[in-house]
Write a structure and sequence with these properties.
Blueprint (H helix, E strand, L loop, with lengths): L25 H25 L4 E3 L3 E9 L20 E3 L3 E3 L2 E4 L3 H4 E3 L5 E14 L11 E5 L6 E10 L4 E2 L6 E5 L6 H11 L11 E3 L4 E4 L2 E7 L4 E5 H7 L18 E3 L3 H4 L1 E10 L15 E9 L4 E8 L5 E16 L9 E3 L1 H28 L3 H10 L3 H15 L3 E4 L1 H13 L8 H8 L3 H6 L2 E3 L3 E5 L2 E4 H11 L11 E3 L4
Parallel strand pairs: 5-8, 11-18, 17-20
Antiparallel strand pairs: 1-21, 2-9, 3-4, 3-16, 6-7, 7-8, 7-20, 9-10, 9-15, 11-12, 13-14, 14-15, 17-18, 19-20, 22-24, 23-26, 24-25
Length: about 500
């Protein structure tokens, strides 16, 4: 409150004016210059290369579609371990009993479906059929039947991406686009290695293996091909098992998020039974994906980031007719839910174009950044240099009239003074400077004399004894040391200096 209303007159308050002053302590000056240089380097790296403050995200029109191909070339004819296997039984809440699960061959058209919402795709891994009475709606005792579809992992699952960026004239079907897969961050090294092995790629444990480039990937054995990634059409096909390994999922392992709870559940729920969710975040980029400090390029890339949802995945298929007219069959399906999400707008940090508005905003950010650096330096100088900081704080907090009177007094002392430098004295002084190292620091008064020298004196004078300078004042020639003594005596509270002084002027 004292700041807002100081004294008895709240409308009267002092105004702080900026006064330019400086210090020349060697360590502080060197430290300040190094900090200033580092600030420039950091600001260039941060605002130009990292945040790319001169750019902004641009809009993209994109979509996806997926399909499941059950070509007979990939299907196996054998008994699978998950058929009629008691290890896959699971009991939950006393109501849901997953047991006596058999197997059945089901077509790909039945297994695969597209959701009503764009970007949602489904592959069934478990079917549950149960009969109900039409009259009462109650379930028929012992009528529940469960079965696993076979050969799901050996079917071919494909995805086709489409992207168009009007701002830069990009169309994915007419351009060359690099393809990258970003594996889930939670995968262990073992699962990452398994993903590389399944795709037949070389695994390097020292490299960034979570980012996998699959541009022009193709694996075939004769006429049998099980993988393709075409950068010209963005058509990507893998076996279902390969998609699962990229996400670090195995349908025949326990779903670790669901475990045996005493009094609630019994058994170990396998992923084939509970289902799994695989989210694919798809981002088009013109900023290289393998480095952070980079500038946009003309060639675009697409990055498919995989995420796994281990929660139950279930859909209801509705009612169907039974063999008896008094009953109907209710079918449910558990399986793999693939969800594609296109990264657009402000979230698309890798797809940017130049923006004058963003550039202006970034310039203001740089100015604020430098202002903070100067503020930090001022705090250090005024508070962390010991007794000198205390003296500097007091000297900086002076009324403006102090500086005005000081300026007028020094100006009056130099009125009517004409400084002439003798060429012989100048030559002797130059010779003395070349022969010896002068370690004396010139005083402020001597600096003032050098600044008031005429132009010819500036070009000649370097280090000259004051008694060799003839000063003309009121038509009277007096020695420089005598004139300096008069000026010292005329100023209050100033100690009289020795008669012989040295002063420095700009180097020759």
């Amino acid at each position: 409150m004292n700041v807002l209303c100081p004294g008895k007159r709240p409308y009267y308050k002092r105004i702080a004016l900026p006064v330019t002053t400086y210090i020349d302590a060697k360590k502080l000056v060197v430290g300040y210059n190094l900090l200033y240089l580092c600030t420039w380097i950091v600001s260039i790296i941060y605002f130009v290369f990292y945040t790319k403050g001169w750019s902004e995200p641009t809009e993209i029109v994109s979509s996806t579609t997926m399909w499941l191909d059950a070509s007979s070339k990939y299907l196996l004819k054998r008994k699978f371990r998950y058929c009629d296997n008691k290890e896959y039984d699971y009991f939950l809440y006393g109501r849901w009993s997953y047991s006596n699960i058999s197997c059945k061959n089901i077509s790909a058209d039945t297994l695969f479906s597209k959701g009503v919402a764009p970007g949602s795709y489904w592959i069934s891994t478990l079917y549950v059929d149960e009969e109900y009475y039409r009259s009462s709606g109650e379930s028929v005792p012992n009528s529940r039947r469960m079965y696993f579809p076979t050969n799901i992992e050996n079917m071919i699952l494909g995805i086709l991406l489409f992207g168009r960026v009007p701002e830069i004239g990009y169309v994915s079907q007419l351009s060359y686009t690099r393809i990258y897969f970003k594996l889930p961050m939670t995968l262990s090294r073992k699962k990452i290695k398994n993903a590389y092995d399944v795709l037949g790629l070389k695994y390097d444990p020292a490299a960034n293996n979570s980012l996998m480039e699959l541009t022009n990937y193709k694996r075939c054995n004769g006429n049998l091909c099980w993988g393709d990634a075409d950068p010209k059409t963005l058509r990507i096909t893998f076996k279902v098992s390969q998609w699962l390994h990229l996400a670090g999922v195995d349908l025949d392992t326990y779903n670790n998020t669901l475990y045996d709870r005493v009094g609630i559940s019994y058994g170990n729920a396998h992923t084939r039974l509970t289902g799994i969710g695989i989210n694919m975040n798809i981002e088009f980029r013109n900023v290289p994906v393998n480095t952070v400090f980079s500038l946009p390029s003309e060639e675009l890339a697409v990055v498919i980031s995989l995420e796994v949802d281990y929660n139950w995945q279930r859909i209801t298929l509705g009612k169907s007719s039974s063999l008896q007219n008094t009953k109907y069959v209710q079918s449910d399906s558990y399986g793999m839910r693939f969800v594609t999400r296109m990264v657009r707008g402000g979230d698309a940090k890798g797809l940017v174009v130049f923006s004058f508005r963003a550039l202006v905003t970034s310039i203001f950010d740089v100015v604020i950044f430098f202002s903070m650096m100067r503020m930090f330096t001022t705090i250090v100088i005024f508070n962390l240099i010991g007794s000198k900081s205390k003296q500097w704080r007091k000297a900086a907090k002076k009324h403006i009239r102090y500086y005005v009177k000081s300026f007028e007094h020094e100006k009056a002392e130099l009125d009517g003074v004409d400084i002439k430098i003798d060429d012989g004295a100048f030559s002797k002084a130059k010779q003395r400077r070349d022969e010896a190292n002068n370690n004396e620091t010139p005083t402020d008064r001597e600096k003032d004399y050098a600044e008031e020298a005429n132009e010819s004196g500036r070009k000649k004078a370097d280090t000259i004894e004051l008694n060799e300078i003839q000063i003309v004042e009121n038509n009277t020639k007096i020695a420089g040391t005598e004139r300096l003594d008069r000026m010292d005596l005329s100023l209050p509270n100033r100690r009289k200096r020795p008669k012989r002084r040295r002063m420095s002027a700009p180097p020759i």
